[in-house]
Design goal:
37% strand; 6-stranded antiparallel barrel; alpha+beta; 222 residues
């Protein structure tokens, strides 16, 4: 579990590509502190396992599914990346609950300066947009941000100077791809509501409906 508060910007040292996979070595400093083999580190918002650790770097294995659903396949030697270690049990939730399981990608359509902030507008699919709400949380390349605007094609966030200076977001340009992870609360609510529409005979051998339905919520004052 992560919070979306980036600990440092690392640099891709090398990428060894297989037929449909890759081994990526990342030059880092802060995230190497107390890092052990098997620990999780989010790289551009993607939860990956440290498989080897050096004096100033660590390596991860990236499988085909991850390359297909994220922007990690676009990385090259020298690319800057956002890094965050898994949250410690005594840590603070400075951002929001982030799983490190990317839902998909978006494309930056515009970046506009607004006094000390920068507005970033991102186009993405309807499948991702349906979970995005104004003033809700979104993870962009591992960075926890608040949604300022959303419509049926895109959403926008405003990046303050501190976030811009400590992440890779303002190094991006229109046309670049970013990893997106929706706030998981909305996905769980949707799943529970869908579960209520499944005939129980599929699970219990009866024809009664089970789970949470809209009628159930209304009848119980929700």
């Amino acid at each position: 579990m992560f919070t979306g508060i980036i600990e440092e910007v690392g640099e891709i040292q090398s990428i060894k590509k297989g037929a449909n996979s890759a081994v990526i070595t990342i030059k880092a400093n802060t995230v190497l502190g107390n890092l052990h083999l098997g620990d999780s580190v989010a790289l551009n918002g993607v939860c990956l396992t440290a498989t080897s650790i050096g004096k100033n770097n660590y390596s991860v294995d990236v499988m085909h599914e991850t390359l297909r659903r994220t922007n990690l396949g676009e990385l090259k030697s020298g690319s800057k990346v956002n890094l965050e270690r898994a949250m410690a049990a005594n840590g603070r939730f400075g951002g929001h609950i982030v799983a490190g399981h990317v839902d998909g990608t978006g494309t930056i359509s515009s970046m506009k300066k607004d006094d000390n902030a920068v507005w970033i507008t991102i186009d993405t699919s309807a499948a991702i947009l349906k979970y995005i709400i104004s003033k809700g949380s979104i993870t962009i390349d591992g960075v926890s941000l608040t949604v300022a605007k959303v419509d049926n094609k895109s959403f926008a966030v405003s990046v303050i100077p501190h976030t811009g200076q400590n992440t890779t977001l303002l190094d991006k340009k229109p046309g670049d791809t970013v990893n997106l992870e929706n706030d998981m609360v909305g996905k769980y609510v949707e799943k529970l509501l869908q579960y209520g529409s499944i005939p129980a005979e599929e699970e219990e051998g009866t024809t009664e409906k089970t789970g949470i339905t809209m009628d159930f919520l209304i009848q119980n004052g929700f």
